[in-house]
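Q: Entry one of two.
A:
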Amino acid sequence: MIYFDNSATTKPYDEVIDTFAKVSKEYYANPSSLHNFGGKVETLVNQARKQISNLLHVKDNEIYFTSGGTEGNNLAIKGTALQYRSRGNHIITTRVEHPSVYEACEQLSKLGFEITYLPVNESGQVDIQELKSSIKDNTILVSVMHVNNEMGAVQPIEEIGDLLSNYPKIIFHVDHVQGIGKVPLHLHQAKVDLCSISAHKFHGLKGSGALFIRDGLRISPLFSGGNQENKVRSGTENVSGIVTMAKALRLTEEKRKQKGTDMLMIRDYLISNLKEQSAIKVNTNPSTSAPHIVNFSAIGLKGEVIVHALEAENIYVSTTSACSSKQKSISRTLHAMGVTDEEAIGAVRISLSYDNTMDEAKIFITKLERILTKLYEVVGDTK
């Protein structure tokens, strides 16, 4: 099997699964319990918090555990909106955000918040001056993803942070779900206030995530009824998921340092070979994108047909993001970049992990060429 759908989810490390089993069997007490068994479990949670904070170069008390990226993004955006509504009701985000940001903003717009969606250029990046001109006296939040989940475009987070440092009442949230472990981001240096991550994107387990909240910043909780996570995120902690998230992040950071160059070489090989095929348009700009995502369009074909044809060869890719892949509408992100409807319909996403190899990339290109030849024969095109 060749698995090129790592932006949807990654394969958990063996060490992660072993640790999950051990913690689940031996440390099942509730970390909020008063007895010493609960105390031991609470210690495990706090050790994981420290490990994650060290890897992210932030303080222990700035890490809040969540169920994943969607919850982290919702908590950051709605929690800010509810906490600072008296200060203003204007939120700025982009046209290429993950649905967990876009839909959260759409919900807030129905509650009276004003949302500005920044356009992007053909590479998928926002313009700093466009952002600056969109800021108003009542702007309370700017939310921009670090790495786009469909295209791989990297946004200028440090530049945005520098700009927003001139507006101390505006809170800066970054969706770092696709960037973590692939594209380094120093949260304090980039002047980020809130940042979401999700464990299953870096070989941890589904159902675990974290939200960075800058020390001293308060946001409104979305859940009521408990006092966990400093009253910001109530609910009994997913201890096994939290502990294994710390392990997965450490292992991923080690692999990034060891295999980051290999991943970039594989991506560039894929892009150069895809560009040689006349029927294909590569939508990802390698000079402004992350090392693990390639998006291309097979003109005149449907992306889902190519996905299933590759699946028959035991090769797994996707069309858009996993959260949108079963929707029939054309990708909002591709539209925002100026991609035509025909090109968007034929879009396919390849997303790599550090376990993928150049041999797999070569097999993929060979298989794809055969598949496209057959498909174009079926539709009566000689491309």
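Q: Entry two of two.
A:
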Amino acid sequence: MTTTTSTTTTATTSRHASVRTAPAVAPGTGPTSPSTTTPGPEQLAAVVAAVRRGRTTGRARAVVVGLLLLLGCVVTFAASLVVGEFALPLREVALALVGRGGDDAAFVVGTLRLPRAVTAVLVGAAFGLGGIVFQSLARNPLASPDVIGVSAGSTVAAVGVLVAGTAFGVQVDQALLTPAAFVGGLLATTAIYLLAWRRGLSAYRLVLVGIAVAAMLNAVTSYLLTRAEITDAQRAFVWLTGSVNGRGWDDVRVMALALVVLVPLLLVLASPLRTLQLGDDTARGVGVRVEPSRAALVVVALGCVSVATAVAGPVAFVAFVAGPVARRLVGTPLTVVPAALTGALLVLLSDLVARTALAPTELPVGIVTGLVGAPYLLWLLTRANRLGRTG
């Protein structure tokens, strides 16, 4: 027994000694885990080169996608000027644009179709920009302005101004609708932000609170319509569907002035937005002022959505679809310019379909965008449910 105990003690001591005296494994030469391996200079250089190649490839792909989207916008824009109940050859359209066409062509192109097409482009771009900012801030594709109640706030304010204007005998025009829509959207966004804030902004809580606020605001809009005169109600119903029919150069000027101010601001804020997508703590770690940057981005995106809503109404699903589609085409998380081009192409193409599908009857563009966006929303919810079930 003594011999066995002594042998065991000796073996244990030998194992401990072997552990204590085991030679250190050189970095990168032993069976150690990757997390404990210190990369050498050659490995770091390879990683840096791979990142640079990825950035170059991503930029090249973004440029190609942007050019293709721009080409699609140009082709659809030309088709919008040519196709219609009063068809015009492309040559006559070109002559009318330079002031050398006939009176009929000049009226159809210069008064009816050209301002409508330009308005569609600007409205679609504004909705696309607003959507990509809200979705990127919340890091959730469901956090679109027309889903979380931002557009509903602009809508209830604009309809309220329409109804109040008739009650007080005031002629309501675009000069009143635009600031009213902006203030309504700002109040709705502030309420959603404060209600969703709990020591930080949770994307899940933001979407739920936004859906609840949107439901309440839609109820208020319905109540206002029941109190409106029949002419105001008819005007408001068409506006609520979303339409660019009858839009003129005054609407183009409003949208153009708004985007001239808002787009440069958004491009400047694109860098903080890209960092905020990594999380608040990471953004603070690299020196980004989180709350001021987020507030500035919200105000700029709200301006885009509110002005577009005031001009064309809450065109459904454009802000919701434009950003994710552009992101999938480009393959990068943040795609500001492609999202604007996607929104412009979507509204322009939808308006062309709405104007010609049941000619001579013209549908509001919001009906066509709704037919496109609703299946996408169902697919997105189905995909999210499948990912949640499978983990």
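A: Comment on entry two: The radius of gyration is 28 Å. Residues 1-36 have pLDDT under 50 and may be disordered.
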